[in-house]
Amino acid sequence: MALRELKVCLLGDTGVGKSSIVWRFVEDSFDPNINPTIGASFMTKTVQHHNELHKFLIWDTAGQERFRALAPMYYRGSSAAIIVYDITKEDTFTTLKNWVKELRQHGPPNIVVAIAGNKCDLNDVREVQEKDAKDYSESINAVFVETSAKNAININELFIEISRRIPSANSSATSGKGFKLRRQSSEAEGKCC
Ligand SMILES: Nc1nc2c(ncn2[C@@H]2O[C@H](COP(=O)(O)OP(=O)(O)O)[C@@H](O)[C@H]2O)c(=O)[nH]1
Ligand SMILES: [Mg+2]
After folding, report:
1. Which ligand has an atom closest to residue 12 CA?
2. Nearest residue by C-alpha to atom 9 in ligand 1
3. What's the gap between Cα 78 and its chain centre?
4. Percent share of the chain, pLDDT over 70
């Protein structure tokens, strides 16, 4: 079975639950006293998607302003970016929109953007309406899910959706490339004979 390595980065304000989402996905556990991320941390997890294995190379970034300048190192070359906000904090949704703008300007052109409204277990103190976030995500063609790293809601689904959006190795985009290569080699053959 073909193995593909997919670089994925997590972006979003400090405290929205980026590291908790990664921890839930990779280790299937939740630590309420998780340490704040310094700089960035790296984890991997491999999942099967149809007849391919997707090895997610996950870069979990720190949200603090002083680390912001480092973000391009993580989203450059990424197949997908997961931008996380906290449904109980309106300002984290504003930060998310700024990340979308930055990715548009400086990110890889075909990056899959996935938006995660985390802490959906705290519905009682919600500040961001699900419909508003969903409409916004649709308008920018992003994956959207509300997640809870704490209660393991929609974490696997988030990554499954990302896998779905990544063009498969034999999709038209890549077979187009293959065709060009074939033509080049047959042209070379023509010259030599
Ligand atoms: N209620 C609730 N708390 C969460 C959830 N995810 C993370 N947290 C808490 O939010 C805080 C920040 O989490 P962390 O993963 O460090 O956020 P990061 O700074 O974005 O990496 C921690 O106290 C977590 O326990 C969630 O889904 N629900
Ligand atoms: Mg963190």
Report:
1. 1
2. 17
3. 8
4. 88
